[in-house]
Amino acid sequence: MSIDDKLRSGRPSTARTHENVEKIREIIKEDRRRTIEEIVELYPFVFLRNMIMGFGLPILIQDQSLTMGTVVKFLYGVPTNSSVYLDSVFNRERRSVSKTSRWDIYSMLEAACSRLGLDGRACVLRAICEAADTTLQHNGLAGEVLHVLLTPSTTTEARRTYMDSEYYAAERLGTEISGNCHLLYSECEVGLLDFISKVEY
């Protein structure tokens, strides 16, 4: 049977398709090139595509005309059914990726402040209060990021513990009692925002 006859033979049965999938996996494992006959056997209803490229240079020779060139021909067998490739991609199990929540970031900031000898919890609460008191939104990209980070009400994440409600309270106090965040959280001697900018009242 010629290649053209095999191409015209139609689609394989489901059992034949599964058998072909196994053959494909074996060939991929062996990491070898496939011949046209193998492609037609694996994909009985394959579209063959040709790509021909050429390059020519005229060569000047006295009283003669000569062109030197080369032609490269590629023959691709393109399957009509891509489910063979998609099955292995979509059937993979999703890896569980641990997501860092806003509360985790606040805990990390608290730990960093504690290592500096400050009251970590009070310093983070003071920073949230000061960020609510003086807007950081119009200070470029860094200001936008700090605004989102230090505004607990912008999150949809559930609170981990009851203690996380203090972050919301600090934000509310910053909007209601202007200029007194340093007095409300006096346990923190240095405001975190003072490392980046100066908050003036």
UniProtKB/TrEMBL annotation:
The name this protein goes by in its record: Uncharacterized protein
InterPro entries recorded: DM4_12
Pfam families linked to this entry: DM4_12
Top-level taxon in the UniProt lineage: Eukaryota
SMART domains reported for this sequence: DM4_12
